[in-house]
Amino acid sequence: MPSALVAELQRICGQDNVFWRPDDLIVFEYDAGFDRQPPSAVVVPATAEEVAGVVRAAKAASVPVVARGAGTGLSGGTVACAGALVVSTNRLDRIIRIDPQARAALVEPGVVNLELSRAARQHRLFFAPDPASQRASSIGGNIGTNAGGPHALRYGSVVNHVLGVEMVLADGTVASFGGRAPELPGYDCVPFIVGSEGTLGIVTKAWVRLLPLPEDVRTFTALFPDIDAGARAATAIIATGIVPAAMEMLDRVTIEAVNAAFDVHLPPEAGSLLLVEVEGLREECEDAADAIGSLCREHGAFDVRMARSQAERDLLWKARKMGYPALARIKPNNYLHDAVVPRSKVPAVLREVNAIAARYGLITANMFHIGDGNLHPILLFDAREEKIERVMEASAEILKVAIDAGGALSGEHGIGLEKNHFMFWVYAPEDLEAMQRGRDAFDPERVMNPGKVFPGGAQCAAIPTERIKRGLAEGMWI
Ligand SMILES: Cc1cc2nc3c(=O)[nH]c(=O)nc-3n(C[C@H](O)[C@H](O)[C@H](O)COP(=O)(O)OP(=O)(O)OC[C@H]3O[C@@H](n4cnc5c(N)ncnc54)[C@H](O)[C@@H]3O)c2cc1C
């Protein structure tokens, strides 16, 4: 990092808010995914004006820029390529306003997802997107990845909940798109910005939609002998026309891990656990509750429980929410996938996923959003014993199975560095070129988060895992 740029960043944001010594940069080398690379420096601005000043200074010094929220991303979105400067939004953490009449909130990007819902609760409102990382992940990162979560089944992902954004563009201009009121005239750029993974600019404020807390909530768990029976019950529930707020599934490996790690006492013979939540008007929930219980039993559930209090509801969710940390007892490392397939194909795809894992001698655990077919197969391994190349090879095969089944590359974690080369599998060159032209309208020199989302870029070639994935994507052409 040129020392003149460091000095300029210190002038804009204060000395304590600029990091460039190698030791200080280690924690910014990675997110919750696989790839790692140190940025050239990290700056932590406190206002949109400071962000704009930082971006202008980086542009003058020809240094690319990467926005970073909480760094819980799973696709390498915040890993800095091409000697980029990381702009952390940690200090942009104000809930500026909650407008109960408009059912909207104006927030800065560093606000933690769960903090927003907690604040909105005072007005009997909530922010619907609830990624499982919601205790840590930021609204800016949720916007960057178009995050989903268990309740995306009923409420949709983040794109359905952002009304407007203020964004610092690549030349340091501060521009606004949309606003507090929905459906403003002119081009609606907000859905283009949501999910753009920091490649269009840095969001510095967002108007987000808040929803009224539901009158009633019912939460069930049903245990089945295997995945197939649980998946059939899930399909039958959706076929009745009920739209559950959430519908999650855990497989046998995950159930065993949760039992061993936490006090949940699930029957050890369970081959799958289906968690269903319905919310809405009391009468609506009562009808749905009766139907869900009967359908689960009809499809082979041997244990159906409904929570009778908030404490019981929290207990039922505990198995789901603690599933991921529980897996660390089996192996210290994991690779969490994010493919989506049509719901009817879930059992067949999972059988293939398990067969791939077995062929590579890896353990796989499945804990996923069955309601919208968003699979999260997790390959468990010990990086001290297992070659990372083999884990990535198995991963590419899993991705291919999902695409062949009519699925998508990512349900909610984004493309980032993890899957950029695989974009060729689902998009024609003309499609990708059209997307690039859209990006160029915001960032003609492509300096915002370079090397992400689009395949073929050489900016991140220094990262070993990136080179492996590129080889696999090209070698296993669909
Ligand atoms: C245990 C665990 C569970 C998870 N569960 C879910 C889940 O259920 N659903 C789900 O969707 N994801 C989930 N994730 C993934 C991750 O938490 C989400 O992608 C989340 O939205 C990332 O938020 P963040 O603040 O950590 O963003 P980061 O990781 O910091 O950044 C993510 C992307 O957003 C961009 N970005 C960040 N801030 C801004 C900004 N201000 N302006 C523009 N771009 C920006 C970054 O450049 C990057 O490309 C999970 C992760 C973990 C570790």
Characterise this structure.
With 478 residues, this protein is α+β, with helices and mostly antiparallel strands. The protein has four domains: 3-88, 2-Layer Sandwich (Uridine Diphospho-n-acetylenolpyruvylglucosamine Reductase, domain 2); 95-212, Uridine Diphospho-n-acetylenolpyruvylglucosamine Reductase, domain 3 (2-Layer Sandwich); 216-321, Alpha-Beta Plaits (2-Layer Sandwich); 328-475, Alpha-Beta Plaits (2-Layer Sandwich), CATH 3.30.70.2740. It has 17 helices and 18 strands. It has helices at residues 3-13, 22-25, 48-60, 113-121, 139-145, 152-155, 190-193, 227-239, 252-261, 282-298, 310-321, 323-326, 346-359, 388-404, 423-426, 429-442, 464-475, and strands spanning 18-19, 41-43, 65-68, 85-88, 95-99, 104-107, 125-126, 162-168, 174-178, 202-209, 211-212, 216-224, 246-251, 272-280, 303-306, 333-336, 363-368, 377-381. The chain has a seven-stranded antiparallel β-sheet, with helices on both faces. It has a five-stranded antiparallel β-sheet with strand order 5-6-10-8-9. The site of flavin-adenine dinucleotide has 37 residues, from strand 3, helix 5 and strand 10.
